[in-house]
Amino acid sequence: MMFRNKLFLFILFVTCFEDLLLAIDVQRRNLATENPGFLSIDCGVEDDYLDHATGIWFKSDKEFTSTGENHEILPEFQSDDDEYEKQFGKRYNTLRSFPEGRKNCYSLQLEAESAKNSSFRIRASFSYGNYDRKNQPPKFDLYVGVNYWTTVDSNAYGAFFRENRSSARYKDDIYDRIWYPYRLPNSVSVSTSSDIDGSNLYKVPAEVLRTAVRPSNGSSMTGSLSVASDYEYNVYFHFAELEVFEDKLREISITVNGGITQGPFTLEYLKPLSISFQKLLVVGNFTFTIASTNESGLPPILNALEIYQLKQIEHSATNQSDVDAIVSTKHTYNIDRDDWQGDPCLPKDTTWTGLSCRFDTTPRIISLNLSSSKLTGEISPSLALLQEIESIDLSYNELTGSVPEVLARLPKLKLLNLSGNKLKGPIPQSLQDKSDNGSLLLRYGRVRFSLLNSLGSFYTA
To answer: Where are the domains of the chain?
Structure first.
């Protein structure tokens, strides 16, 4: 891989969310797959495959989503550039589109114990490729769990990847971060072919650390990156001394946003050094200056830079007991509704049809209306897990069996409509008592049929 004479920049806008609903690459150290620590999904392909260009095993997205359609981008948008294929393989040639529904989700099942207190890195990639021949690149919102992540402009994403083909990634980077070349103004390149000490905390690839830039003249160099305003950022500067000097040391300091300084730091030959700035509030561009100290006999260098945008988790997912109850109900009755995926209550404008929620710190389901939904079988006992439910309407279905007594244990239930079904047996006394004392409005009427035996129609003449 030819990465000489380049400074590498890794930019990732990161949100630390617990629940994962949409992802293309999700990486976790103890996830056992063909690539340990990785789950890489290629949307729109029918079968799993090994991408020989990257060495990554890609899975079809069929088992992670239940909606959408597979498509290929048009041939004129499929690159025949060898360097592009080496980096990205074929995963931008196919896609899954979602022409139906306001919310479409990818669901990744993680073991509760192993996911607890774990960190995840999610990368989602998009390429429109005029698959529908409409020349209308879509623009849509992307959520992780119940929290807004970003708005995707697929036209902008395509332009970004076309302009950034020369880069370092897996297998050089064990986390498959993609490092893009970045040249600071008024700088010159420094590089080495020597081995870099591999013990660095942030696992920066040796191939990345083998290149650096220094000022073309003077004792400082300045960089600027355009980022979204009014967010906090974590920034990581990575260094490794690439040159040997018998009587000189490279001593530097770093100043960001015109005022926050760390240092001085002395660089050691071929030994990585990473300096971080945490929770920086950036307004406008992010700027930095790396300068040599008065005692330094050498100008400053910079090998690589990472910048992460921090987003607050504004919303909690729906109460897990409620989620378990409604998902069990969905499976019990084979409810096939396009919007019954993802979190039942959030985002607020995509709450599952037939549900109402109370949006406290943790959303709770307070109403369920499945009237005239062609339900069959017995009343699901899972409904008893909806401890904040106030109204249940199961009327005019094909429900059979008896009315379960556990429904009387729902402390806030005010309306239970079971009319128009084929239920048998008496109403449980506990429910009848609540109906009698006025704390529960109970509607319970069986379907009745009238049979007339016609013996003919006559009239007299």
So the answer is: 10-177, 183-311, 320-443
Pairwise CA distance, residues 113 & 82, whole Å? 43
User: What does the alpha-carbon distance between residue 14 and residue 16 come to, in Å, rounded to a whole number?
Assistant: 6
pLDDT, residue 84, reads 63
Q: How far apart are CA 325 and CA 317, in angstroms?
A: 14
Q: What residues pair up with 224 in beta bridges, in sequence order?
A: 287
- Residues facing residue 139 across a β-bridge: 153
- CB atoms under 10 Å from CB of 33, counted, come to 13
Read off the tokens for 459. 């009239």
pLDDT 10s digits, 210-240: 999 999 999 999 999 988 888 899 999 999 9
Q: Does the domain made of 183-311 have the CATH classification 3.30.450.20?
A: no
Lowest mean pLDDT among 35-39, 203-207, 220-224, 231-235: 35-39
Q: What tokens does 437 get?
A: 């004392």
Query: The domain 320-443 belongs to what CATH superfamily?
Result: Ribonuclease Inhibitor (3.80.10.10)
Strands ordered across the beta sheet of 273-282: 180-181, 8-14, 304-310, 231-239, 273-282
- Distance, in Å, from the CA atom of 191 to the CA atom of 8, rounded to the nearest integer, reads 12
Q: Extract the tokens encoding 71.
A: 């498509």
Contacts of 418 (CB under 8 A, 6+ apart): 379, 394, 395, 399, 403, 442, 443, 444
CA gap 34, 243 in Å, rounded: 39
pLDDT tens digits, one per residue of 99-112:
988 899 998 877 66
> Rounded to 5 degrees, what are φ and ψ at 232?
-90, 150
Give the torsion through C-alpha atoms of 210, 225, 38, 137, to 10 deg. Answer: -130
